[in-house]
Amino acid sequence: ITNHSKSKRSSMIKQKKGITLLLTILISSLILTLGIGVFTLLFSEIKISEIAKESFIAFYAADSGIECAIFWDTAANAFSTSSTFSINCDGDTFIVGGSSGVSSFTIPFDNGSCTEVRVTKGVETVITSQGRNTCAPSSITVQRGLRVNY
Predict the structure, then answer these.
(1) How many CA atoms lie within 13 A of 61 on its CB side?
(2) Other CB atoms closer than 10 Å to residue 118's CB: what's the count?
(3) How far is CA 148 from CA 28, 36, 57, 117, 127, in A?
(4) pLDDT tens string for the chain (150 positions)?
(5) Torsion sign across C-alpha atoms 131, 126, 147, 67
(6) Pick from 113, 104, 129: nearest CA to 56
(7) Which residues have CB under 8 Å from 49's CB, separation 6+?
(8) CA 8, CA 14: separation in Å to the nearest integer?
């Protein structure tokens, strides 16, 4: 084998090494890009699920307020405009009713959520309940409301 063919073979090997390095960098970049994309998507999904959880907490707080008000209104006519009445919701006692025809009270729950309930008696009874996922100041406060007319 001549020196000329040895140097030709050596330069071909060097070219192949350069291509291998370039392919390695390209594949590594592609894998890194895919990894960052999956991480971003996963992080977004986690954030959405947190907000959905807080939304359910607020909704069920509002629903509990509605259920308590309907129970006391149908069982004892507690929100009548002629007299006051003592009701108990989730272990808390509230004085409701009276001459104005509007009763409002806030029910705090053990999980930190609460609901503001307002009952208006007139030709029809209107009960609104605004549930919040947290009653303490928070960066994420979700509120859900329900209204019942009968």
Answers:
(1) 28
(2) 16
(3) 59, 47, 19, 11, 5
(4) 556 566 666 665 555 566 888 888 999 999 999 999 999 999 999 999 999 999 999 999 999 999 999 999 999 888 887 788 899 999 999 998 877 889 999 999 999 999 999 999 888 999 999 999 999 887 789 999 999 999
(5) positive
(6) 113
(7) none
(8) 10
- For residue 19, give both structure tokens: 């291509």
Tokens read off for 60: 């069920």
Reduced to 3 states (helix: H, G, I; strand: E, B; else coil), residue 147 is strand
Q: Which amino acid is at 108?
A: P
| Residue 147, token pair as written in the block | 């209204």
The CA distance from 119 to 139, in Å, is: 30
**What value, to the nearest 5°, has the Cα angle with vertex 119 and ends 113 and 120?**
155
Count of all residues that appear for the chain in the document: 150
Distance between first and last Cα of the chain = 103
**CA separation for the pair 70, 149 (Å, rounded):** 10
Helix (H) or strand (E) holding 58: helix 3-76
